[in-house]
Specification:
By secondary structure, the protein is an alpha/beta fold. It has 15 helices and 13 strands. The protein folds into 2 domains: 279 residues, Serine Threonine Protein Phosphatase 5, Tetratricopeptide repeat; 160 residues, no CATH class. InterPro entries: GPSM, TPR-like_helical_dom_sf, TPR_rpt.
Amino acid sequence: MNITKSDKVYQALLRSLKRRKGFGIVFVQCSTAETARIIQRIQQDLPEKKFRVLSLPPPNYKRDIFGKKTPPVENLYDIVVNLPDRENINILLIQGLEKSLEPYIKPGYGGDGNYYNLDTVPPILSHLNQRREKFRDDFSNICFVFILPLFAITYLIRRAPDFFDWSTGVFAIESEVLGMENLNSDYDSLEQIKRSIAYFQQSLAICREIGDRQGEANCLNNIGNSYQSLGQFEKAIAFHEQSLAIYREIKDRQGEANSLESLGNAYYSLGQYEQAIWQILQKQAKSHPNWLQFLTEDEANQIGLNRGAYLELPPPSEMPPTIPVNKKLWMAIDLEYPNYQLLLFNRSKQGTVLYCPSFGYAIDAIMDKPPFLLPQKYSWAGKTGQKFIFKETGKEEFLAIVLQKPLHLPWLTPKREEALPEWNAERIKELFEELEKQGNWQVFYQTFEVVE
């Protein structure tokens, strides 16, 4: 079976929408003729999601029988806020926004249109730019999916950059109808994306010149998304990693989340499933300071004897928490999820391992009252007194998944012959597919620096 580029892009779109929990902005690029088919296909392929299709009416400058004209839509927020049962919508599919742009697009040099004159800014785009925080705060349960032709996405990028910056990119789905007309359209689409990259590169240079770190990160992320649309995933990853570093530096959580999701999509498209799923889960991780601590023998004894006395955690530090090198340590996981299953992963430059459940450290992965202390008494490390020892300095990352309904995958059953379960591509995909079937699970993430 020959899998086309459009098939891959469509599957990436489905993965993004399937794991989306709450607010998001997604753009799907396709021809106007294909819009209805794409909407129907998305709804059929994601039956577990609650959809609403919003068709924006086209303007009509001729008077009807009552003497009225239909102006372009100018205020999307008011339309959404008045949708019946909007609190239960997971995904809002929006079509027809391009009709509110067409009256403002004027001819210009190079076929780009006169994008830069203030009188060409459609009110609906000004409104989206100015009220994006209201969309995020008031529609926290809705993922907005705008289905648009390429010219409208290009126009939106240039005239509503703030709103576009919060998107997870553009999923470009080509028509399945063959013929010279589509070949020309595909060529034009590629040229438009390349022009967008050039535009973002110019903006990037200006942002760096004036020291605008937020704008720099936004431009880098948009360049990465553009390269993803071209199928150049290695280039996309390079730009997303740069944007991620800046978002973290300036503490922009929304930008960080968008970059992580874009990175996950790019790694998944390359078949690098460990990187992809790590980025995707990290993006979904809840902010919970000090949920994971490493303790000396005396501190662990106090917790073991007085489980109800573990009341007050130290305040979170601005600097990454540290782990002393070559010390025997206990691990305490302080999460209030009684009777949930815990999956605990550790990633460092040596690789990724599963600590819980495992024969090595945690035979029983069902959490009781916090803190959940490792190694457990009957594990290999508990019997031998090995505990946790970090022998190299550097960064250690920990990711915990807590599940209300335990997973019963064979490799999650602790075995003596595999003390720490192997973390391979087949198991990674299997885990992710099982997680996507469940609704009630949470992710937590923490980094440490191992120091002398």
